[in-house]
Amino acid sequence: MSPNFDLLKEDMKSWGKTALLFLAPVAILYITFVLTNCEDGFTWSDFIPSIFVQGAIVVYFLNEFLALIKKFVESNKY
């Protein structure tokens, strides 16, 4: 059991696994965006995400930050 306001190794492992799991849809969205923008080869401007993709990335990071705060504030049983 992890106490409140403390992050144990198990908390970080659990958070990391969840973060990697939810990174997949954002990564697929970004890769799809890049592949649809290239027409006759890659240029550096093809890798700049659109506003939609940027929004998805921001929402992902906010969600993971809130999940980490939740692990920090609550006591968790393992």
How would you portray this structure in words?
The protein is mainly α and 78 residues long. It has one domain (9-73). The protein has two helices and no strands. The protein has helices at residues 9-37, 51-73. Helix 1 packs antiparallel against helix 2 (51-73).
Ordered list of secondary-structure elements with their pairings:
Elements: H1 9-37, H2 51-73
Helix pairs in contact: 1-2
Biggest beta sheet attributes: none
- Straight-line N-to-C gap: 6 Å
> How many domain modules?
1
**Computed Rg:** 17 Å
Instruction: Give the number of helices.
Output: 2
Gist?
Helices cover 67% and strands 0% of the residues.
Which terms summarize this structure?
78 residues; mainly alpha; 2 helices; elongated
